[in-house]
């Protein structure tokens, strides 16, 4: 009712809107190029969603290439052809993983089966150790709690089976695994392949930046992943040795849990310690206290020795960002999303840091 005339200029045609008698000209100029760019972005996002499985495989290959690349460089400097070096690394890694699985899987399955079978009685033993008396299924709410805890064992088993099914389904089983290995091989052997790709599709003005960004992202993800794997392995070994000395049951399962929990900052080690302390308490109060002390000692060794030595060159993410990334990744992509969350967040953080630095340089 204020008499304004709205003029919408879409480049190829103009729309006039006159809602009142006293005209006041207000112009909205929407360039054709801007509309085309918006549609192009939406189309690109839709296309990425359609090929999301392929995108994940490419990102996994990039992660593996970032881990393998320094070892390939080291072998190449010793006059070993890069292709032969990568094949040698593949053979060593596959051999080590196969040997590890052969050694670990049988006792792991045995311990997991015993946990599932004995979870109900475990709770009763813990309550006795804590001085709460013997709790039976008929004791009302505590009985319900015991039944709930007894069901957790089978829930864990189903969860592990579901996680395996998710991963194998996502990558298309053996074929997807082979494709990832082949892509990783060519990414490491053909060091400049992605840079040539950027030169082919990206404007010349941004090619140097994209090449530098790719290098920094690969270096950061590779350093983080190598360091994290080494840290997880060290913690798992320490936990296994310590629990075995104390005579705590299910030492292998608890050690693997402690190693995996290292990927979750701060909260992970605490969560991994809880079931170990509970299982220790199931034997005796003293063993529960000693188990708690063991985890505290390992945490101090990690913070004061392992992290400074192993992760000294790695600039990690903010712990809050890491945890939020893991939660979002798990929500969006399940197990695969959780696995890729931290590396993807690391790549985004490198790009975001560049954008902030550019704004500061322009005085914005």
UniProtKB/TrEMBL annotation:
Q: How does it sit in the membrane?
A: Multi-pass membrane protein
Keyword annotations for this protein, in alphabetical order, are: Cell membrane, Membrane, Transmembrane, Transmembrane helix, Transport
Transmembrane domains' residue ranges = 26-48, 54-72, 84-105, 167-189, 229-258, 270-298, 310-328, 334-353
What GO CC terms are in its UniProt record? membrane
Pfam families for this protein: AI-2E_transport (PF01594)
Q: For this chain's UniProt record, which GO biological process terms are given? A: transmembrane transport
Q: InterPro entries attached here?
A: AI-2E-like
Where does this polypeptide localize? Cell membrane
Predominant localisation class: membrane
Q: Does the keyword Transport apply?
A: yes
Family indicated by similarity: Belongs to the autoinducer-2 exporter (AI-2E) (TC 2.A.86) family.
Supply the name of the protein: AI-2E family transporter
**Which organism was this protein described from?**
Candidatus Uhrbacteria bacterium RIFCSPHIGHO2_02_FULL_57_19
């Amino acid at each position: 009712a204020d008499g304004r005339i709205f003029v919408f200029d879409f480049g190829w045609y103009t729309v006039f809107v006159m809602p009142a008698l006293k005209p006041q000209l207000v112009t909205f100029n929407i360039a054709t190029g801007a509309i085309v760019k918006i549609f192009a972005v939406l189309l690109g996002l839709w296309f990425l969603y359609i090929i999301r499985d392929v995108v994940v495989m490419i990102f996994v290959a990039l992660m593996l290439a970032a881990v393998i690349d320094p070892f390939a460089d080291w072998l190449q400097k010793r006059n070993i052809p890069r292709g032969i070096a990568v094949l040698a690394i593949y053979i060593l890694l596959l051999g080590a993983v196969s040997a590890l699985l052969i050694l670990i899987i049988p006792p792991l399955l045995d311990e997991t089966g015993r946990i599932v079978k004995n979870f109900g009685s475990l709770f009763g033993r813990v309550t006795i150790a804590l001085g709460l008396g013997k709790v039976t299924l008929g004791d009302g709410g505590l009985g319900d709690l015991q039944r709930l805890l007894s069901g957790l064992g089978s829930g864990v088993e189903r969860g592990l089976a579901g996680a395996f099914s998710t991963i194998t389904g996502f990558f298309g089983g053996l074929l997807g695994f082979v494709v990832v290995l082949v892509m990783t091989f060519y990414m490491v052997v053909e060091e400049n392949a992605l840079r040539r790709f950027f030169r082919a599709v990206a404007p010349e003005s941004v090619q140097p930046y994209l090449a530098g960004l790719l290098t920094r992202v690969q270096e950061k993800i590779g350093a983080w992943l190598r360091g994290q794997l080494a840290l997880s392995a060290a913690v798992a070994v320490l936990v296994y040795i310590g629990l075995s000395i104390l005579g705590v049951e299910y030492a292998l399962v608890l050690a693997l849990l402690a190693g995996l929990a290292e990927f979750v900052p701060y909260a992970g080690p605490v969560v991994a310690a809880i079931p170990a302390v509970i299982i220790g308490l199931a034997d005796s109060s003293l063993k529960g206290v000693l188990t708690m002390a063991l985890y505290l000692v390992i945490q101090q060794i990690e913070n004061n020795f392992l992290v400074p030595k192993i992760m000294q060159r790695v600039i990690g993410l903010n712990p809050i960002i890491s945890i939020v990334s893991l939660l979002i990744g798990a929500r969006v992509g399940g197990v695969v999303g959780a696995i890729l969350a931290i590396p993807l967040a690391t790549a985004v953080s490198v790009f975001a840091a560049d954008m902030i630095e550019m704004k500061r340089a322009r005085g914005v």
